[in-house]
Write a structure and sequence with these properties.
heterodimer; A: Alpha-Beta Plaits; 5 strands; about 40% helix; B: about 150 residues; TIM Barrel; 5-stranded parallel β-sheet; about 35% helix; about 20% strand
Chain lengths: ~100, ~150
């Protein structure tokens, strides 16, 4: 039986439009904060965009808090990042997000 | 029910998205070091105001007698984390050390501790999740961290 890595998904909101092509820069700047070992443990991966400014990343379970903290210090080229929600599945994450976004 | 303080008007939907019930605006709901109904005073300028009008005190340095006065008046002691989140390298280490000492002493003095971003623009804003992690980063435990961003000033 194959053991799968357990992941956590985080919705991140950027102050400027963010696309998958910027993930390399994002990772290198994040690496300056949490270090190479932290990056290996967290292994952040771009999953999908929700809109121009919001996107989902996947990180290893247990390292999401470190990533959320690191995002507070991550600033480059006018970009800064806020973690909006975190969940164990994309489905639950989007359900929560839509609930918040659609609230009057 | 989390709260934050900023220098600019944050749209309600953005505040909600970031996990806050309300982000108070300085110059609108609150005033910083200016005479008004709801004042936040810096620790060095508190004597200029009637203590009953002050809703919170932004603490910058460790002063046990001053901390005791804030506790007696049951005012909220606010730690400004804007310098911490805008720092990098050695500056970050120094600011982290300063805030950690400040927070530890404020907790020891049993103050109603609160933390706020005092963001000047959207880049300075953090989500409630990030605020909790920052509070833990400066030495608070999970409950203290949640309490620190749950204090309503008005």
């Amino acid at each position: 039986m194959i053991t799968r890595r357990k992941s956590r998904y985080i919705i991140i909101r950027s102050t400027k439009p963010f696309s998958a092509s910027m993930m390399n820069l994002f990772n290198s700047k994040l690496s300056e904060i949490i270090g190479s070992i932290g990056m290996c443990e967290a292994s952040p991966y771009f999953v999908k965009s929700i809109d121009d400014n919001s996107f989902i990343i996947r990180v290893s379970r247990g390292s999401e808090r470190r990533i959320i903290l690191a995002l507070s210090f991550l600033k480059f080229d006018g970009f800064s990042f806020c973690s909006i929600l975190t969940s164990g599945t994309i489905k639950a994450l989007l359900k929560k997000y839509n609930l918040i976004a659609s609230r009057p | 029910m989390y709260f934050d303080i900023s220098y600019f008007d944050v749209p309600e939907n953005l505040a909600r998205l970031l996990g806050f019930k309300k982000i108070y605006t300085i110059g609108k709901q609150l005033e910083l070091n200016k005479s008004a109904d709801n004042i936040i005073a810096d620790d060095f300028s508190l004597q200029r105001f009637s203590i009953s009008n002050v809703v919170g005190v932004r603490i910058n340095k460790i002063d046990r007698q001053f901390f005791q006065k804030i506790r007696e008046e049951e005012k909220v002691a606010i730690i400004d984390i804007s310098n911490l989140i805008n720092a990098s390298g050695e500056g970050l280490i120094k600011e982290h050390k300063r805030l950690k000492l400040l927070a530890m002493n404020a907790l020891k003095a049993k103050l109603n501790l609160s933390i706020a971003t005092f963001a000047k623009n959207e880049e300075g804003l953090l989500s409630s999740m990030q605020m909790i992690e920052i509070a833990k980063f400066i030495g608070l435990n999970e409950k203290q961290a949640k309490d620190a961003i749950s204090r309503s000033l008005i």
